[in-house]
């Protein structure tokens, strides 16, 4: 392969990875680009998961064997079967060298078949009907991150030293592309995450709610919004300091996350200040209200603050047509304000204000009982 062709292969791989917007796109661009650059018919990208002591395949590209998926859910191999990913690499780095690609063939070393040679990579080549492969370690932030694997079919020219040298260069390009993708993912995560609680932020809710309402308009999927206001935050800040107030917000954020997990596919978020919400797509309105009720009970049991005011709006309730995210949010927000004004210990639900079960207020608690204690009596009751 001429120098111009090699340089073009490196440039095309870098361009392909730079154009990727998600990890999956980045993985696929790496495998496809390297496979083409090395004239292979199959390529895989794997990550070394140290905590699990395994190589996990992220993507398989090209002519896949039976059972191989493009993005496998659980194709992984114990690293003890491939000791070179740990021993070989670390030995070379410890000596001040650089990790380098190497070549394996289905025949193994000279005379190996007759001697019963059973190296795992050689066995895998034979099992999957491949003739040879080149394996290139990927190094990220000074550590072994994983590997690139490119194979050719039986009868094709066996990879040579020049191919291994090119694979080493390509692996370095892949490492740079993966690092860029990771930085972009981290930037996206930070852009949609509340710094104090680790929950989603208002930007994430706005985007998620817009998409959810579009889905509702397309196929009538139930979309529900639970808007919460933490009671007593100002008092805590004024009497115990903002550090304690932040702890209250963090504790409630954990409770909100726990309750959100009771509803499949629900987003838990902090809107700002003392306002939080759950965005649920799919579960019924009754399921959402039950979780909102549980949220109120658990919030009342926190050692800080004074529970939570909670409003619910769901397209599964008689609230009229919902053609925009703004309308659903306004309905949930209005319900939350009614809960706040009534000092309600249970969620106020838009479209259900006429139910026989009245809103139970802290002001109604019998003399000599604490509000939190009274609220605990209503665990498991139906929606307000």
Short description:
The chain has 384 residues and is an alpha+beta fold. 42% of the residues lie in helices and 19% in strands.
What would your notes on this structure say?
The C terminus is likely disordered. The chain has eleven helices and eleven strands. The chain is an alpha+beta fold and 384 residues long. The termini are far apart.
* Alpha-carbon distance between the two ends: 74 Å
Order of helices and strands: HHEEEHEHEEHHEHHEEHEHEH
| Proportion of residues in β-strands | 15-25%
Q: Percentage of helical residues?
A: 40-55%
Average pLDDT level: 81
Which short descriptors sum up this protein?
384 residues, alpha+beta, six-stranded antiparallel β-sheet, five-stranded mixed β-sheet, 11 helices, 42% helix, elongated, disordered C terminus
Per-chain topology:
Elements (H helix, E strand, L loop, with lengths): L2 H16 L4 H15 L4 E8 L4 E9 L13 E3 L8 H8 L7 E4 L14 H8 L4 E9 L2 E10 L8 H31 L10 H18 L3 E8 L2 H8 L1 H19 L6 E6 L2 E7 L3 H16 L7 E7 L10 H17 L6 E2 L21 H6 L8
Parallel strand pairs: 10-11
Antiparallel strand pairs: 1-2, 1-6, 2-3, 4-5, 5-6, 7-9, 7-10, 8-9
């Amino acid at each position: 392969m001429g120098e111009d062709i090699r340089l073009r292969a490196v440039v095309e791989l870098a361009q392909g990875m730079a154009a990727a917007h998600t990890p999956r796109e980045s993985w696929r661009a790496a495998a496809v680009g390297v496979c083409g650059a090395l004239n292979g018919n199959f390529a895989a990208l794997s990550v070394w998961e140290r905590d699990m002591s395994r190589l996990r395949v992220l993507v398989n590209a090209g002519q896949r064997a039976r059972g191989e998926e493009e993005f496998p859910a659980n194709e992984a191999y114990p690293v003890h079967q491939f000791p070179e990913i740990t021993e070989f690499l670390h030995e070379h780095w410890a000596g001040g060298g650089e990790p380098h690609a190497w070549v394996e063939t289905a025949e193994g070393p000279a005379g190996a078949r007759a001697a019963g040679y059973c190296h795992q990579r050689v066995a895998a080549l034979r099992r999957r009907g491949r003739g040879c492969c080149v394996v290139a370690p990927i190094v990220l932030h000074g550590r072994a991150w994983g590997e690139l694997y490119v194979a050719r079919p039986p009868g094709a020219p066996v990879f040579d030293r020049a191919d291994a040298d090119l694979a080493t260069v390509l692996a370095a390009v892949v490492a740079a592309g993966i690092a860029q993708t990771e930085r972009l993912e981290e930037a996206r995560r930070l852009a949609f995450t509340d710094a104090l609680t680790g929950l989603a932020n208002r930007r994430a809710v706005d985007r998620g709610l817009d998409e959810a309402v579009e889905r509702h308009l397309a196929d009538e999927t139930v979309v529900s919004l639970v808007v919460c206001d933490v009671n007593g935050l100002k008092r805590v800040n004024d009497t115990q300091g903002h550090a304690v107030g932040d702890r209250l917000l963090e504790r409630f954020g954990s409770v909100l996350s726990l309750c959100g997990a009771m509803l499949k596919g629900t987003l838990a978020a902090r809107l700002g200040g003392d306002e939080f919400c759950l965005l649920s797509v799919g579960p019924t309105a009754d399921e959402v209200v039950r979780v909102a009720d549980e949220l109120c009970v658990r919030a009342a049991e926190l050692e800080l603050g004074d529970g939570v005011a909670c409003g619910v709006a769901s397209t599964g309730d008689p609230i009229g047509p919902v053609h925009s995210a703004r309308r659903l949010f306004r309905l949930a927000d209005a319900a939350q304000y009614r809960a706040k004004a009534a000092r309600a210990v249970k969620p106020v639900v838009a479209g259900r204000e006429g139910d026989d079960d009245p809103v139970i207020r802290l002001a109604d608690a019998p003399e000599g009982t604490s509000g939190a204690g009274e609220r605990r009596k209503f665990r498991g009751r139906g929606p307000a």
